[in-house]
Structures are given as C-alpha cells and as structure tokens.
Amino acid sequence: MNQLNQSFSVRFTYSISFTDGLFDSHNTLLADFLAAQSTEALRKKLLFVIDAGVLAHFPDLGDQIRDYFAGQTNVELVDDLVTVPGGEPAKNDPALVERIIDAVDRYGIDRHSYVVGVGGGSVLDLVGYAAAIAHRGIRHIRIPTTVLSQNDSGIGVKNGVNYRGKKNFLGTFAPPVAVFNDYRFLRTLDERDWRSGMAEAVKVALIKDAPFFDWIEANALALANRNEAAMQYLVYRCAELHMNHIAGGDPFEQGSSRPLDFGHWSAHKLEQLTGFSLRHGEAVAIGMALDCQYAHLLGYLSDEDLNRVLAVLETLGFALYDPALDQDDSAGVLRGLGEFREHLGGRLTILLLRGIGYGEEVNEMDETLLRQAIHLLANRQPTLALD
Amino acid sequence: MNQLNQSFSVRFTYSISFTDGLFDSHNTLLADFLAAQSTEALRKKLLFVIDAGVLAHFPDLGDQIRDYFAGQTNVELVDDLVTVPGGEPAKNDPALVERIIDAVDRYGIDRHSYVVGVGGGSVLDLVGYAAAIAHRGIRHIRIPTTVLSQNDSGIGVKNGVNYRGKKNFLGTFAPPVAVFNDYRFLRTLDERDWRSGMAEAVKVALIKDAPFFDWIEANALALANRNEAAMQYLVYRCAELHMNHIAGGDPFEQGSSRPLDFGHWSAHKLEQLTGFSLRHGEAVAIGMALDCQYAHLLGYLSDEDLNRVLAVLETLGFALYDPALDQDDSAGVLRGLGEFREHLGGRLTILLLRGIGYGEEVNEMDETLLRQAIHLLANRQPTLALD
Predict the structure, then answer these.
(1) Mutation target among B12, B75, B136, B342 for the A interface, most CBs of A within 10 A
(2) B343-372, pLDDT tens digit by residue?
(3) Distance, in angstroms, between B150 CA and closest chain A CA?
(4) Does residue B383 fall inside a structural domain?
(5) Which of A162, A188, A214 is the last residue of a domain?
(6) Could you tell me the maximum CA-CA distance found in chain A, to the nearest angstrom?
(7) Does residue A5 fall inside a structural domain?
(8) Where among B127, B156, B188 does a domain terminate?
(9) Which residues contact A152 (CB under 8 A, 6 or more apart)?
(10) Domain range spanning residue B136?
(11) Is the ipTM beyond the 0.90 threshold?
(12) I want to staple B293 with a disulfide (CB 3.0 to 4.6 A). Which of A199, A288, A350, B373 is the partner?
C-alpha cells in the first residue's frame, strides 16, 4: 500500500478539409461533417466567433452562415454571431475570453456542442482557448482565414492568449474536432498577409523536407505574384508536414525539443520590439535568415545552402533585416534567447540548419557571432527577383 | 488535396504515493521523486500553494517545507508560499486564479518547474486549473489533505473553478505528475470531513466492486470511530478503483457516459441549495440514498441490497435526508436533472444500481417516483449503529 501507478493514453483525431466557398449553399462539407458526428437524436448547438477583420472583407458572411444552417435539423445555430477584433489585439484583451465564456453560458453551449472560430491565427488561438477551458473543453471547429493559420497555427493543437504582454502565457493543448480551410478567404488578403504566411512553409521545408523547399524555390515568383494554384499546394503541403510532425513527435510538448520553433526565438522578440508592426511571418523570415547566417558563420551551413535560403525568402518578398535587430541594449533582440529558454523550461534548445531539410539542436548561442550575423544581414545586397 | 486526417495518442503517467509525514526530514519520498524527474543539470523551481485551512491545523507547515528543501540542490523552493482559502470559496473567486498565475509569472515558473498544491479538493481543483493554463501546462504535484481528496478528487485528471456560481464551469483535463497522500493530514480533520470523504468510497464500491462494499460494511463502525488502519485501507482501495476507472475508460470524458457521477446529479444541486452547508460527501450520501430508493421503487434493486446500502451509509454516520430535498419549487432538487443533462452535453445519462457492485444507465428519471423516493427517505427510521 505504498504506491499506485497510473498510465493511460488519450487518442485525438481530427481532419483538415480543403475547400472553396465553405458556406455556399451547395457545399455540403461542413453539414456532412456535423451530420456524421451526430450520434444521438439531439440537436447540437453551434456558437460562431468571427474575426472582425474577416467580416470587413466579407460583410455578408453572417447572413451566409445563417442561410447555410437555416435548413439543417441536427444542429442549431446560435443566432448571435460573436465578433472579436482580429490580429494580436484578440489575444491581449482578457475581456474577449470573458465575452466568449459568457456566450457559452448564456446560450447553454455544452461539451457536445460546438464553438466555431472563423479568422486568423490570433482569433483562433483566442477561441480555442475559451473553448478549451469552458466545461473542461467544448468541441471546437476552426475555420482559418489566412495563409498562416491555414498552413500552420490554425491546424495544430495549441491555443493561447497573452498575459500582461507575455505571448501565449495562458493556453492549453487542445486539438480541434475539425479544421476547414477555405481558399476563398485567401483572395482578399493584403500583400503582407499573403506573403507572411509563407514563412512557416519555408520553415517546415527547411527543417523537414528538401523536395518541398525545391518546389518553393521553383515556384517562389508564382507565389509572390499570387498564383492561386501554387498557394493551394503550398498550404496543403505545409499543413501536411505540420500534422505529420505533431502526430509523429510530442504533440503536447512534454519534452524540451521544439524543432518547429526554428527561427522563432528572435522572431517572437522582434514582434514585441516592433510593437507587432512586423507580422509574425515577416519576423519569422528575419529570424530564419539570422539563424541561417549564424549557422553559416559557425560552419554548419554551406555557402550554397545559405544563399538558396536567403534568395528564396527575398524572392517571396521578405525583408531579411529590420532595424529592431540592432536595438542594442538590455531589451534588445538577444534578450529573446533568455525568454525563449524560460518558455522552453530552463534549457535553451535551438535548431540550426546543417543543410536544406535537416538541422541539429544546439544548447547555446554565441552573442558575438550573432551580432556578426545581424551585421551581415544589415549590409546584404538583396537578390533581385526577376519575372 | 481535399482532406488530411490527423490521429495521435498522448500518454500520461503519474503515481500516487502513500506516506505518513511527507515533510519529515528523514522522509525522502518527495525528494527522491524530484531527483528522479531531474533529467538535466537544471534546478527546477517549486511553487507551493497551500490551503489556509490546512495551515490552521499545521501552523509550522511552511517552516517544515522550507526546512525540507533547504538542503536540496536540484530543486529551488520559491520562498513565498502562496496561501488560498480552503473549501468551495477557493473555487468561487477569480482573483485566486489570478494570484497563482501572477506568482507563476513573478517567480519565473516554467513548464519544467512544478506547482505544488497542498489542501482539500477545492484548493487542488483551483491550483490544478491555474497550473494547467499557465504556459499551456506546468507540471503539477498534488498533496491532498482530506479523505475526499486523497481517495477521489485529488487523484484524478480534472481541475476546475466555478463561474458565476456554476460549479466547475471553467476547467480542463490535466493529469498531475504525481500525488502524495499523507495520512498525517487526516488526523486533524473534523468529524464531518473525516466522514464525508467516505461517501465516494461507498460510491465506487457500489458501482464497481462488491467485495469492497462488503469490506466497508464489515468495517463501517471502525471507520465511523476513526480507526486509522481501516481508513488507510479505504483511501488506498478507493484511489485504486478510481485510477483503474480512469485508465480503463474515457479519461478525458469525450463520450457521454459518466458512471462515477452515481448519486451526483442531486448531490450537486443539494450543495447549491444549501449554500454549501452540506459537504460534498454528505450530499453524495443523500444522492446515492435517493437514487437507490428510486431504483428500488423501479424494481431495479432488491429489498436486501437497498437496506444494506442505506444501513452502511447510516452506520458511517451519514444523514440520508435533508430538507432541501423537499424545496418543492422550480428551483428545487429535481432541477438538478436538467442541469446535469446540460453538463453532460444534451443527453441525460444516470447510473442506477441493479445490485451491489453493478449498475445500469438510464436516460430518463420519473419525477413522481423521485418524489416518492424523497418521501420515503424523509420518513425513514434510521439504522441504529451498535458498537
């Protein structure tokens, strides 16, 4: 009678569907999913939470959603579509978590009902968090509306909000029950959002899949010029690699290794230093350039590979330097190393590329060499994109 | 390129250790656990959150904890031991969640550090919730100090706080990394807390393990008279059955079935109707008596089995009736059925006993029969406990 040992596994499954015009009346994808999930003769409720930025581009979206569900018998749409601001502000205001929790309470959304988030990554992070803590987890469906959320942040298992300016300080690991990637939402993205979402695709290619990097390289100009077919493949393949990584590794990040955070230690800090005027993907592009330049100085990465990485990023339209990199005081970008270490839990673990498609983890970074890498990026002559 | 399917399992392991005097200087149980967890040459931090009710009985506990960790090199105790009120109030005040989150932030507690909760079930629910949402889940250790928390609420995978008076409206499923059951804490419990924790042992015996019920029946007087050896076995065996249930079933309750909620639909409502003057276990004892009386009226449960159940509860010292059962208006106990249905997610699922050790789920309850069952309990002649 000294000890009992507990051990169990919990299985999580969900699908990511790709479509064009999810709420078109003839598109039965979402309705079919809900019907298939309906195991009992009960009407499940659906509570929608929508990114105000998406509504600005699609003012009829609310009516479309109401029309879509008007004829359906096995689900009951909550008529009050909750709207929240888009972008990082969605994660900075605790009142927005409260607004969603309050709607869950007011409309009697139970654990077998659904909370549906429609928006960019920040809104999905907020909605996923509120859904995860209400009733110990309400089923949630994600409808990502940006490149970044469709290929990366919206399809994973994390959620979170900021706390006193600290990114994702509050959050959980809670997989959605389904993700619906609707290409239609990508058409209205502005240039910067279209582009910045591609940084995570470059990232996952660089650390996991050289042929995908070759493909991005070959299609970089088409992608920069908003070729839709190219973007659809990029989103699909990036999502696929991302999902394989989650399933094959440590989905709830119980260990210390975080390969998907390649380029992110400085990116998080750059976003903060620029007051989020840099988009996440723009910061990640700079972060990857910095860590590749550093890996090259360290002798990890060949001249050719370094040049290919930097040229692809530039062809896609990314700047590889921002003055915030040189904000050289105690609050500068190098402080991001310490914050990243704390976020990981004590031991710094940074992935550096050894070649296109594979990397190696290191546990320290040399600040002198990092400053040298920053200097090289600051003085770099950009690749000329020719089309 | 129409769909990607994700599927993965996450494994959770933890142990429950049983001891007497966890923080005695010669007791290496906790220190050994922390040393074994320490995979890297890093000092992990420990943030303690302690139930004020426990401190009232053990005013030296803080010093004992500080002494215990003073000589240890692989962990660093945060000197500020956070204190929170015990009992249900711990779960009613959102400022207490904030207080713990704030300490996590202030003392740089990362995902590989530990938050340690010491207290009754309510405090552990609060601490577990704060630990689960900070940094997407900090490792948490539970040190339950009541019978109820040592054999049931403190050893499971749930946490939660109340929201606008709604019980466990906010919470997650997040297993601890370890539980330490220290019998010493049980010695200072008042009569009601000593007794009320036994209700969950009766419950789990009734629905899962007839031999354990036989044992409780044979030892009911000893238990009522605070025999320590009997209580230690009761706690151990109840914890074991509880853990087996979690591991063997649906740990994160993705389905609708909730057999461990036997007797709980009315118990939750009775706690609320009495403003929590009824302890949880006292309410569960009444709830079980009610559902057994109902099952008997329905022909599910024999005379003999009904009488054994009611007699054991009475011998343990439980009242089987409370006037709140007859608060016969729209806010009365029968409303608990609807609230329980909503909590489960739409479909009412109630376990009724068919005999000692096994039950059957039903999806509706007859209100007339329930009122009759309440009437029988109100007019019952209690079993005389002879010793």
Answers:
(1) B136
(2) 776 678 899 999 999 999 999 999 999 999
(3) 12
(4) no
(5) A188
(6) 75
(7) no
(8) B188
(9) A121, A197, A200, A201, A204, A238, A239, A242
(10) 15-188
(11) yes
(12) B373
